[in-house]
Write a structure and sequence with these properties.
With 64 residues, this protein is mostly helical. It is built from three helices and no strands. The protein has helices spanning 3-24, 30-46, 50-57. It is elongated.
């Protein structure tokens, strides 16, 4: 898998996890959902995201 696929996988996982935690534990977990969404939004314009940096350092490929 590539950096973009891992990024989408990770973002989707965190969104589902935070919505579940908001339902089961505290609605304050929705702030984490907003954080993930804002990072995805800004990465569309800047082509940078903290998770992309981490994935590149872990050796994930850029292209398929």
């Amino acid at each position: 898998m590539t950096v973009n696929r891992y990024l989408r996988l990770t973002a989707g996982f965190f969104i589902v996890l935070s919505v579940l935690l908001a339902h089961l534990h505290s609605p304050h977990w929705l702030w984490f959902t907003a954080f993930v969404g804002l990072n995805l939004f800004q990465s569309a314009f800047t082509d940078w995201c903290p998770m992309m940096t981490l994935l590149r350092r872990l050796g994930v490929r850029e292209q398929a």
